[in-house]
């Protein structure tokens, strides 16, 4: 045989005299009654009944005689049973492969109790959780979308402007040495576990029984690689770096249109010394205050600076109020 895979005899039972476990290669005729072997009666033996095939050259699956259906060796020219030529004969039927999974693997056709618990209860739980989530989403949507019309009078204005002041500081921290910035001073270095990685760990093998069609079958090893998780050790560094960090925030505020918005005066030292300061990000906010003409309640809208002054004090605007959460729909205000 090629590949050196072990080859064993198929077994067959005689349907005339009831003789069991006849050998597929050795017994071309029933040892009990002499009836010819029926290739459709062949089956794979149990492990303890395996009989190895030795010194039997494999020439291919048997040919079914086109005249009398008897299986003949592929090498034969004429049927030994009826004398018919075999060149128009096809292969005899073969048994489907039998797959023996590696130890510890539950085969797909195993009985129910050997398999993981059915997922019907899991499905029920998922269904309930999904239903509750859907209800939550629906109620949030209702709260956000349920609106009534209203008329609002501008009652006031306010603005805020902020400048963040940053200070250049020396900072100690611990990072993976790979991630240390170029200007960092490494104070110390040690090995630490950084997650896990997969390493090859041999293979796990099952076996496939393949009917060769001539009364024998071969056993083909089927292996898949195995992996194990191992700790991944990498260098951890204690470093000192200089960084710009938020030191404080300067604020200017106004409470009417009359106070023109202005930025706080930020006097910084400049330079990049330790302790030097610089200007960081700026933020600004412009707010219009309204009174609801219906119930006298107050609400506010944040607007861009360009629109802020257009909301003249005392002017009336039509818009929507969110019924559940309160608050004006600030994007859809129309002057009356
Ligand atoms: Zn027989
Ligand atoms: Zn024949």
Key features?
three-stranded antiparallel β-sheet, 14 strands, 336 residues, mainly beta, binds zinc ion
Describe this structure in words.
The chain is mostly beta strands and 336 residues long. Helix content is 9%, strand content 43%. The strands form three sheets. Strands 1, 7, 8, 9, 10, 11, 12, 13 and 14 form a nine-stranded antiparallel beta sheet that branches. One zinc ion binds next to loops.
What is the global morphology?
Answer: elongated
Strand content: 35-45%
Number of helices: 2
Associated small molecules = zinc ion
Low-confidence stretches: none
- The radius of gyration computed from the alpha-carbon positions, rounded to a whole number of angstroms, is 43 Å
User: N-to-C SSE series?
Assistant: EEEEEEEHEEEEEHEE
Oligomer: single chain
Number of strands: 14
